[in-house]
Amino acid sequence: MPKSNLTSRARPPGLRIVLGVVAALLTLLSISGPALAQEDDAPADDASSESIGGTLQTRDEEGEQIALEGVTFVVTDSDGNEVGTAVSDAEGNWRVDLPGPGLYSVELVEDTLPEGNSLRNPDNNPLSDISVQPNTNKNTLFPLGERQSSGDNTNRVAQLTVDGLKLGLIIAICAIGLSLIYGTTGLTNFAHGEMVTIGAMTAYVVNVTWQVSWFGSWMSSLVFGALVAIVFTGFLGYLFNEGVWKPLRKKGASLIAALVVSIGFSILIRYVLLYQFGGRAGFYRDFRIGEPIDFGIFTILRKDLFIIVFTALVLVGVGLALQKTRAGKAMRAVADNRDLAESSGIDVEKVIRLVWIVGSALAGLGGVMFGLTENINWEMGFRLLLLMFAGVTLGGLGTAYGALLGSIIAGLFIQLSTLILPGDVKNVGALVALILILLVRPQGLLGRAERIG
User: Fold this and answer.
1) φ, ψ at 306 (rounded to 5°)
2) How far apart are the first and last CA of the chain?
3) What's the rounded Cα separation, in Å, for the pair 50 and 60?
4) CATH of 51-132, one of 2.60.40.10, 2.60.15.10, 3.40.350.10, 1.20.120.160
5) N or C: which terminus of the chain has fewer CB atoms within 10 Å of its end residue's CB?
6) What is the per-residue burial (b if ≥16 Cβ within 10 Å, else e) of 349-358?
7) In this predicted model, what pLDDT tens digit does every residue of 147-177 receive, in sequence order?
8) pTM, whole model, 2 decimals?
9) Distance between CA 267 and CA 131 in Å, rounded?
């Protein structure tokens, strides 16, 4: 009997779950890592096909888009050897078939441009270090002419507002889980950003490395990848709660200790991803360049319009679930007053477990949406983490609706701040808004004031 007791103390159940977390993450890395690490030197099989192309267009005096025909493009490989040339057709389209995946450069021969046309950024010609992944048709963009601007900045403000709304919705879908976790446990989870990265990379594995598709559709491939990312990150959230945070809560660990543990996990996962994937960026297939839709005072890519509509619908669904469902009401009750919720018969641990699953799954979905607008790399979630904290704090710690409102405000301030600030420091706009609003309302926009002392 004593031997049995000693054995159970030496091998706590939580340890096996922690090992399961590490094993699940390493399984993903071992399967997907070579996709980025060996992207340049992987030989193309007989069925593979890679190409580089694009559409060359400009605007006439009336602002209408017109295609430029007869412009020559030269493609070279990483060693400077010419791979092929192409001439734009009547619709401005051109494409060069490649011998395989790797790094390539594209040069637009300026002497072949029609009279009166010139490159907007001649220093960016040729475009270098273009990463072409297996079975990918890469699109490039050569802007022509001077950047158009209106005297009253109406068009630019409208464009930045749309871009800010898109960014704010992406931040919101990632930050809601962060806010719910804080509201139910009091933990400020610094590892939440890595869930965003893992979600984006999981979808990348399905979409690019495995190229899983239904009926030969690349869209179905990415949809399937997003579903896999949601399930995988939700499962990781469950494992982390059961193997790390639940044992810490039972042992009475302080919130400061739990905070330090989350920082440690954030650094560990981030640099494991860097070691396995490398620092090179990846992109979903056929989603780097998209077709714009012109609404007059602003233009928006079709994929960005999809992101705005889809994330808005998901957030509305999350809000209705929190408001109408039994589980959602239990989450809000625990976030509002844990002791009172427990005394009323709510299983607090079960609610916390659900919060970790849902919050992590939403972070994974947010990572997929963020990957559609940015390159996919090892620190993309970490770069978004500060903005998530700004949105959560701005709206009010622990409230899902506050995270939504605060994130949208943060996204708008980030983009609109470029009207007066350089683009490299645009994130300062969200932090300035955070400071100004907290000076007036320290508990956040939807937070509840509490008496201290």
Assistant:
1) -60, -45
2) 50
3) 33
4) 2.60.40.10
5) C
6) eebbbbbbbb
7) 554 445 678 889 899 999 999 999 999 999 9
8) 0.75
9) 27
